[in-house]
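Researcher: We're teaching a course module on how sequence relates to structure. For the next exercise, students receive a sequence and then see the predicted structure as tokens, so they can try to spot secondary structure elements on their own. Here is the exercise chain.
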Amino acid sequence: MLVMRHILKVVNSLGVKDTVTTKYMRQNEIFADAFNYFVYGGEQVINPESLEELDTCEVEIENQSNIHYAMPVKNMVYDALQYAKQVEAAVASHKVSGDYKGADSDEYLSGFMKEDRLLPVVTLVIYFDSKEWSGPLSIHDMFDKRDARVLALVPDYKINLLAPVSIEDGDFGKFQSSLKEVLSFIKYARDKDELKKVLDADESFRHLGRKEVDVLNACVGAKIAVKEGEEAVDVCLAIQQMNEEAAQKAAQKERISTLFANIKNLMEKMGWSAEQSMDVLSVSDSDRKAIRQLLKSKT
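Model: And here is the predicted structure for the students to work with:
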């Protein structure tokens, strides 16, 4: 689990998935793109080069590679702590500056002046998985059936969720960074035919960065090979090669299975040993090794 603020400080991270998503989202371009899409519908309001200067609110990103079924409570606590931190900062500032003169007793005792204002805190949850988010989206979703009159008095806290599977195909064009490729790949990671269409239609997959590939490998098990020192990968070619290798392995497995059945048949009908049967069938040394392993596993 991790939280990343607009100052790009990683507060906490656990596991490989969180490590690679943190490294990826720490890039200003990616961070800004996520908020420009989610908050402004793709309009380039947040400039990644001057993120802190142009930002009018304190923002957080929560990277999720697994569903957290208490996410509304978790994020509500984060936000509350951030607001409390702002109040404490205001109080400390007044103490240092000594500008309590003229303040009424209520202001003095609370330490927070009438004119003091808070910055809004926006927490965005990015779900790096191709599954539907089945967790609650608000505090009210986490309650059992309750009296509506009671619930009307309980503030509902809703999470801001960015999940690839919920993004319409036409909306991926609103992203201006590699989030477009990463999230679209994740959306169709479980559908090989649709994924192939996405890869073939977007030239950007021909030179996807290492950080992006690391996210795909860790979060959806893409298994895209990255050579040592390689910073860009042709994902289309890598997927094609993987499919070809998988097909070759399947064909090899089928061939060995057929050969094994023929050898077993000779052993049973002719009373020959495995080695004699393989001699008769002129089995190669490499195939003999595979057959011996199969014979050993079957006994």
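Model: If you want an answer key for the exercise: Confidence is low (pLDDT under 50) at residues 1-14. Residues 249-298 form one domain.
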